[in-house]
Each structure stands twice: as structure tokens, then as C-alpha cells.
Amino acid sequence: MLFDPTSFAASVNKYTTTGDPTALEAYLLGEIKRLEDGGVMTCSGASCPCGKSEETMQREDDAFRHNLYSGLISCASELASLYRGLSLWDKCFSTYKEIGGYLEQAGLLGTFAQVRVQVNEAYARIDANDLEGASKVLDAAESIAEKTGNDKDVLEVVSRLHDARAVVLARQGDEEGASAAAKKSVDAMGKIGLGSSEFISMVLNHAATLAQLGSPKEALDSVEGLLVDGTPGALRGDLLYQALNLRAMIFFRMGNFVAAADAFADLIDQARQNGALEDQLPMLCINCGQMYQRAGNQELASKYSSLAAALSSDGR
User: Fold this and answer.
1) Burial letters for 88-115: b for 16+ Cβ neighbours within 10 Å, e otherwise?
2) What is the C-alpha separation between 205 and 199, in angstroms, rounded?
3) What's the pLDDT tens digit per position in 5-56?
4) Cβ(185)–Cβ(208) under 8 Å?
């Protein structure tokens, strides 16, 4: 097998954890060259000296090509993501162009594989503040996505597609369009299963978008729906803390300082009970104290300010 995805993932993880982007870039470029240099079958057709039938050789050739282009697309996608993280936009978008060539050579244009790549490129263009370019890429991706099925992998990418669209529209000042796109993102993820962590993340993203667009009541309803009704096994750990923090911030945007303070206090209590968010607790306590200060409750404001100082001095 020319490309081993398990070994590749392990290597990428190794280079990523070392924090050396130059080494990761060199590895990825080396893998792309290795794959391109090795991308030729040694024999094919009925004249194969090993005596295999034409049907067998065709089957093996198809498997070889699939493995080859899966590798090239995977390596180039990681490379594009690396350049995105480093804000090297010319290299990033040049790499996405190369990925388009691999998709064409593999006969994958107009397929879900292209949608996945285009959605990733759209997020990169959003980071580069190329909103027009991101919109064009999303238009192309959506026209293909409409023809795909509704399995889990498809729905996850479609959800990301609409989420990216919501970000673009929000930055362009189209609040109504952004809200509608964010709702589509949640709906797509909801079809996978309401208990999935991915769904919870999308609901939280949707709520954050609504709050930013000036619809805090709708945003709060979305978060409260998760906290009150819950989704067994999903709303816990980091997702729970994200939801509690977002609820507090939404109350702050609404000008309800008492509720915001109480929400921060709830978050702090749950985190301390579970030994979580140790690095963030001092700042959360400061925020909580400030909310109680604005609400006119000096006693609780002092309590949380003192707790912030104590947690900072304890190194917790």
C-alpha cells in the first residue's frame, strides 16, 4: 500500500505536538513527492507478465489509484491547514488549487470529496478575510452537496457548510441570512442525532451567532434548551462549561447583570466541584464579581473578587 492513513495520522500528530511547523511542512511535502513519484502501476492489462487477468488487474489498478489519490488529497489538505494556521495565504490557496487537480485526476469532481475540500477552503478564506472568495466556494460546494445523500459524514460537512455561510453573511451585515444559515447548520447536525457532541457544538455556535447578531432572547432559548432538556451523555465536561459560560455572556448582553452573575457563579461552582477549568477560574471569578458589582450586590462582588485572588495565589 503506497499510502498508509494510520501511519500518516501518527506522523502528523508527532510533528504537530513538537510545535515545529517547518518540520511538519517538510514531512508533508516529502510525502506528496513520494506519492507522486510512486504513482505508476508496474504492469497492467492482459499482457501482465505475472499472468493476472485483465479484470483482476483493473480491480487492482482501481484500488491503487484510490489509495494514491486518497494519500495525495490527505497530505495536501494537511498542508493547506498548516499554511492556514500560519496565515500563509498564497501558499494555502495554491495548495487548495493543487488539491482540485488531484480531485480531477481521481475522477472526484462533483462528488462529496470535493464538497469537503471546498468547505475547508471556505473557512480558510474567511480567516483571510476573503469573504467574496469564501462565498463563491460555498456556492459551488452547496450546488454539489444538494445532490448527495444524508449519511452521517455528509450531514456533518453540510452542517459545517451552513455554519461557514452564517459567518460570511454575519460579517457582511446580513443578519437575517446569517441566522437562517446558522439554523440550517443546526438542523443538519440534528439529523445525525440529538445526543451527539457535534450537535451540541453546533447549537452553541448557533446561539453565539444569534447573540452577536442582536437576538439574545433566541440565543438564550437555544442554550437553555440544552441545559434544561439536556442530551444524555453529551452535555458534560467542556461542552457543559461552554454552555454555562455562553449563558452567562448572553445574560450580560441582555443587561441582566444579576442573572449573568448567578450564571457565572453556577459555572464556577460546577467547575470547582469537578476539578476543572483551573486556569480559567480566577478570570471567571473576576467576571462574576464584576457582574455582582454592576447588579449592586457588593457582598457577593467582594466574595468572588477575593476568591479570584485566592485561586490565583494557590496556582489553581
Assistant:
1) bbebbbebbebbbebbeebebeeebbbb
2) 10
3) 999 999 999 998 888 999 999 999 999 999 999 755 545 444 555 556 677 7
4) no
- Is the Cβ–Cβ distance between 191 and 155 less than 8 Å? yes
CA 311, CA 237: separation in Å to the nearest integer? 21
User: Any idea which residue has 442573572 for its cell?
Assistant: 259
Can you give the pTM of this predicted structure? 0.69
Work out the widest C-alpha separation in the chain, in whole angstroms.
89
Q: What angle do CA 247, 241, 282 make, to 5 degrees?
A: 95
Residue 177 CB contacts under 8 Å (≥ 6 apart), including other chains: 169
Question: Cell numbers at residue 9, please?
Answer: 495520522
Judge whether 88 and 55 are in contact, CB under 8 Å: no
The position carrying cell 488529497 is 73
DSSP per-residue letters across 272-307: HHTT--TTTHHHHHHHHHHHHHHTT-HHHHHHHHHH
Q: Which single residue is written with the C-alpha cell 500563509?
A: 88
DSSP for 163-186, please give it: HHHHHHHHHTT-HHHHHHHHHHHH
